[in-house]
Amino acid sequence: MNHRHFCDVTGHWWECSGAAQRLADTEPSVCTCHSCRAPLEQGDHSRCKNLVELVACPEHRDEQLRRREEAEKEFERRAAEFGFEDKWARMKALPDGPGKHALAEEIVEWLFR
After folding, report:
1. What does pTM read for this prediction?
2. pLDDT tens track for 47-67
3. Residue 56, class by beta-carbon neighbours within 10 Å (0-12 exposed, 13-18 middle, 19+ buried)?
4. If 0-12 CB within 10 Å is exposed, 13-18 middle and 19+ buried, where does residue 95 land?
5. Among candidates 35, 31, 37, 25, which has minimal Cα distance to 2?
6. Closest among 81, 97, 1 to 41, alpha carbons compared
7. pLDDT for residue 41
8. What is the DSSP string of 57-90?
9. What does the angle CA 83 – CA 88 – CA 90 come to, to the nearest 5 degrees?
10. How far is CA 102 from CA 36, 56, 58, 99, in A?
């Protein structure tokens, strides 16, 4: 009994036979129902409130990993430019108060730019 995932790389549905390789994994893992936590290939999940899982299909996994690597490099570049490491260390060392809150706000603003 197959189930479907949505490939978040190119935006298409794909059929899964029970195990999929998620972004952080090196090997495929069993697909489980998000409602009852049982494997999707076991039992009847028609009454479960399942959401569609976004998982890159096997054909687009390499593209997903390439995009992730590019995004991580861009984040590292931006973090160095912003001075994230120093600001984070300073913020953690400050006692609670206006200075700490202002620095935390600056970091959060930067993160969401």
Report:
1. 0.70
2. 888 778 899 999 999 999 999
3. buried
4. exposed
5. 31
6. 1
7. 84
8. -GGGHHHHHHHHHHHHHHHHHHHHHHTHHHHHHH
9. 100
10. 43, 39, 45, 5
